[in-house]
């Protein structure tokens, strides 16, 4: 009980917080699942897997790296052992897949050292992947426009007209 300045006793009732609306992700996956966290993956990475030349394991490695990448200026650095435990493939296979991703220009390994000079897990720079996805994005935008045109009234004529226009004229629309 709180006492007001008048000397009278007042009853203080705790205010209820408004119920937090259920997140769409909670509705889809359930709160028990979502309480363990989530990872932001641009859909274009999944849609462009074949175009990027990624096999399923390479995509899985990239998804695992992305799960550790929460801030643009802090590159992920999971150990090969952690990736091995999550993916169920040997640390040597992890190394090979990362080397393939590096050769493709999608990932860059950056060696990290402890203050005493000992090795730490590598840091993984995904800027190559980001740049490749940025280059692919306009192609997917164009494919979406063509797909919409093809499924609308007079579709084939619209598709031909869209393809015949120079790129600059299409952007002005």
Automatic annotation (TrEMBL):
Gene3D superfamilies: Winged helix-like DNA-binding domain superfamily/Winged helix DNA-binding domain. InterPro entries: ArsR-like_HTH (IPR011991), WH-like_DNA-bd_sf (IPR036388), WH_DNA-bd_sf (IPR036390). Pfam families: HTH_36. One of its GO terms (biological process) is regulation of DNA-templated transcription. SUPFAM superfamilies: Winged helix' DNA-binding domain. Residues 1-27, 153-173 are annotated as: Disordered. This is Helix-turn-helix domain-containing protein.
């Amino acid at each position: 009980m709180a006492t007001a300045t008048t000397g009278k006793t007042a009853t203080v009732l705790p205010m209820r917080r408004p119920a937090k609306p259920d997140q769409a992700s909670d509705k889809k996956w359930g709160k028990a699942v979502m309480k363990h966290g989530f990872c932001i993956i641009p859909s274009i990475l999944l849609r462009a897997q074949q175009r990027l030349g990624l096999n399923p394991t390479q995509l899985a490695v990239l998804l695992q790296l992305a799960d550790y990448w929460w801030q643009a200026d802090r590159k992920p650095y999971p150990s090969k052992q952690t990736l091995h435990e999550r993916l169920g493939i040997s640390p040597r296979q992890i190394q090979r897949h990362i080397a393939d991703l590096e050769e493709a220009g999608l990932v860059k390994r950056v060696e990290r050292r402890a203050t005493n000079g000992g090795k730490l897990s590598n840091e993984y720079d995904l800027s190559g992947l980001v740049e490749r996805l940025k280059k692919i994005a306009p192609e997917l935008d164009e494919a979406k426009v063509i797909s919409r045109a093809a499924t609308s009234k007079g579709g084939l004529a619209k598709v031909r007209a869209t393809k015949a226009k120079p790129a600059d004229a299409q952007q002005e629309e």
